[in-house]
UniProtKB/TrEMBL annotation:
The keyword GTP-binding does not apply. Coiled coil: none annotated. Pfam families: Wzy_C. Residues 183-316 form the O-antigen ligase-related domain. InterPro entries: O-antigen_ligase-rel_domated, WaaL-like. It is found in: Membrane. Keywords: Membrane, Transmembrane, Transmembrane helix. The chain crosses the membrane at residues 7-27, 33-50, 62-79, 91-112, 119-136, 148-168, 175-193, 199-216, 223-240, 304-325, 337-363. This is O-antigen ligase-related domain-containing protein. It comes from the Bacteria. The keyword Cell membrane does not apply. GO terms for cellular component: membrane.
Amino acid sequence: MIAVINSLIFFVLFFLPLVIFPLKLSPYEKPKVIIFELAVQLLIVILLITKKVIFKKVSLSLLFILALIGLISIYHLLFSHSTLTLFGNPIRFQGTFLLWHLMAFSAISSFVMVRKIPALVPIASALLLLAGALYLNTNINGRAVGTLGEPNALAAVAIFIWPFIFFAEKLKKQISIFAKLAGVVFTLEIIYISQSKSALVALLVQIIFLLLIKFVRLPMGKALTIALILMLSSLILPFLDKSKIFENRLEVWQVSLKTAWQKPMLGWGFGNVEYALEKTAKSFNYNFVRYQYVDSAHNLWLDWWIQGGFVGFAAIAYLVLKSLFNLAEKNNLREIMAFLGIITAMSFNPTSIVTLAAFWWLIGQGFSQKK
């Protein structure tokens, strides 16, 4: 059963991005969400059948924060319910129901520690992802979208995958060197054809962190602190953007801040970002958001503040920081690099289900008791 559990996790992390099915409105995102939810449900059933003592193995602090987020989501279902709250909009399908599955996946990740990932898994995923990016669709601006449907989502997957290629285990020395170079080249190629500026920023944060560890020889905790400062500093880029390479994120962030302040403590409800942004844009005459389809704050932290208020924001911030520094204590360099990249990408873009799955899995890995 352990092999089945690991295989399901490998599929979700490395091969779910390749799923595409001709569903109405959402051929890219919706099938991935449905398959992810089914995979999590199957994992839960397997763990119950094999009589794993789940709750004794889950970190109490992780369980407490997940329960807190769960209570907030139930409160919103009861008292701030909209047509989007439970399942989200028909394109992204990211409502409360998905959030519950993501939290369950994180809890499972905290006691199913996947350290030994066969090198073939991320390499095969990267090759298939690159093939899809090169030979499948582009958007109206000529940017590659591959099997993700959105260029920044495509690049975010590459940002997550390449550390697992770079640190692939049980490879001969010459093959290992080639794999490291190939992982970086693969990521640069995806960034180039997707024209994702946010992914380039994420890659720079990852590489600087790696250099601080390998060449400057800083302790893991100090290197992580510097990387986090760099990541936070990168959020100023849209404010300095004169050529609009960051695609009007500044306008979206301004509306998002006003939206969050209207319901600061418990937020508007998970899945309700689109509704909340539209209502605020109309109230304050933000025409860019008002007359275009915007269903995200284009920032992980603002999305959480809008949906879960300050309580939700504090909860997710605690989970991320605690997980990162736990990983640093365990010297899990591979996971930290992947996590830093994912967080940076999520700080500039709407999130795909594959990015969310990787994000919540990494949170769980940080709370694992195993090294």
